[in-house]
Specification:
With about 325 residues, the protein is mainly α. Helix content is about 35%, strand content about 5%. The protein has a single domain, classed as 3-Layer(aba) Sandwich (Rossmann fold).
C-alpha cells in the first residue's frame, strides 16, 4: 500500500524482491497508489488527483477523499478486474499502514480480511489524533503569498518550501544529528530515477541543511495534491467505519491477525498509541517496536539495519500466520 509518496511508486520497492519479505516468487503482489498521489510518469496509471483532473474538479475544486474511498476502489480492482478471491496480507508503511488497518474492517459485509488473512501496519496508528503534527506544515503552505487559495499558475515555491521546512523537523528522531552520514543521504525524500541509486541531491546532501533537503524534495509535488493527501491522512480513523467512533470496540472486532510495528523515536506516531491498540485486539495483534533513532524514516527502507529488522519481523509474521 502506498504512503505519502507523490509522483510515482518508487517508495514501494524496498520491500519487494527475491528473498525479501514480499518475494514475487511466493506471492502475487499488487501495489496501489493513493488517490491524490499525483503520479507524473507515463509509465504508471495516474491516480485521480487535483493536478491531473480536468475542470470543473481540478485543483482546489477536487473533492475530499477518505481512506474508505481508496479501499473501496482497491477492493473493486482486486475482485472485479483481477478476479482475486482471497487476500493473504495487506501491508503498508505510514499512510499505507493506515490503509492496512482500514482493510481489516472497511466493507459493508463486515470484515474485508477474514481469519485466514493478515495485515501489517508499519509506523502507523489506527487513527490520526487531533494533536498530530500535520496542521503545522499545512498552515505554512496555506498562509504563503504564492499559494493563492489553490489557484496558483506556477509552483508556489514559497509555500512548498515553508511546508517542507516545517515537515522536516518531525521526520527523524531527535538523536539524528550527523546529517552527512550515508544513512542521512539514504533517508532523503528525493528518489533517484534508478531504484537503489542516490539522486544528485542525495550525493551532495552534506552541503545542505536538513530543512533545505526537504524543501527541495517537496518542490516536485503539486501543492493541491499535498493538501488533498493531508486531508485523507488527518481524517483517518478506523472507528468511524462501522463502530460509531468507539475505537476499542472497533479494534476488538478485527478478525485478521495484525503485525503492528511502531518506531521507538517516531514523532509522528509514538509507539504508546499502538501499544494501547494492540491490547484491544484479543491476541490477534502482534506488537513489535523498532529500536531506532531514525524516527518515522525508520520504516521507509533507507536505513539498512532498520530495514533488515522490519524484513525479518514481517517474514516471521508470515511464517507464524
Amino acid at each position: 500500500m502506498n504512503f505519502l509518496q507523490g509522483k510515482g511508486l518508487l517508495g514501494q520497492d524496498y520491500m519487494i524482491g527475491p528473498d525479501m519479505a514480499l518475494d514475487p516468487s511466493k506471492y502475487f503482489i499488487v501495489t496501489f497508489a493513493l488517490f491524490c498521489n499525483g503520479e507524473a510518469s507515463p509509465d504508471w496509471q495516474q491516480s485521480s488527483s487535483p493536478s491531473n483532473t480536468p475542470a470543473p474538479y481540478n485543483g482546489p475544486y477536487f473533492p475530499s477523499v477518505s481512506y474508505e474511498d481508496n479501499i473501496r476502489a482497491q477492493y473493486t480492482l482486486l475482485t472485479k478486474v483481477l478476479g482475486i478471491k482471497e487476500v493473504f496480507c495487506v501491508i503498508g508503511f505510514s499512510m499505507g499502514g493506515q490503509q492496512a488497518y482500514y482493510w481489516s474492517m472497511s466493507r459493508s459485509d463486515a470484515n474485508a480480511l477474514p481469519d485466514s488473512s493478515a495485515f501489517a501496519g508499519l509506523l502507523v496508528p489506527a487513527t490520526t489524533t487531533p494533536g498530530n503534527f500535520l496542521e503545522g506544515p499545512k498552515a505554512a503552505l496555506l498562509a504563503s503569498k504564492d499559494f493563492d487559495n489553490g489557484h496558483y499558475k506556477s509552483v508556489p515555491q514559497v509555500g512548498i518550501r515553508a511546508f517542507g521546512r516545517v515537515y522536516s523537523a518531525w521526520a527523524y528522531g531527535q538523536a539524528v544529528i550527523c546529517f552527512s552520514s550515508p544513512l542521512w543521504k539514504r533517508s532523503l525524500p528525493i528518489y533517484s530515477v534508478v531504484p537503489g541509486e542516490l539522486s544528485p541531491l542525495q550525493r551532495n546532501a552534506s552541503s545542505f541543511a536538513p530543512s533545505q533537503i526537504w524543501e527541495f524534495g517537496f518542490l516536485s509535488w503539486d501543492a493541491n495534491d499535498l493538501l488533498a493527501l493531508m486531508h485523507t491522512w488527518q481524517t483517518g480513523d478506523v472507528s468511524t467505519v462501522q463502530d460509531g467512533g468507539d475505537l476499542g470496540k472497533c479494534l476488538t472486532n478485527i478478525k485478521a491477525k495484525g503485525l503492528i510495528m511502531p518506531c521507538k523515536t517516531d514523532l509522528y506516531f509514538p509507539p504508546e498509541d499502538n501499544d494501547l491498540e494492540v491490547q484491544y485486539m484479543k491476541g490477534k495483534g502482534k506488537f513489535v517496536v523498532i529500536d531506532s533513532i531514525w524516527g518515522h524514516m525508520a520504516g521507509g527502507g533507507s536505513n539498512e539495519s532498520d530495514h533488515k529488522f522490519i524484513q525479518d519481523e514481517v517474514k516471521r509474521f508470515f511464517e507464524e500466520k
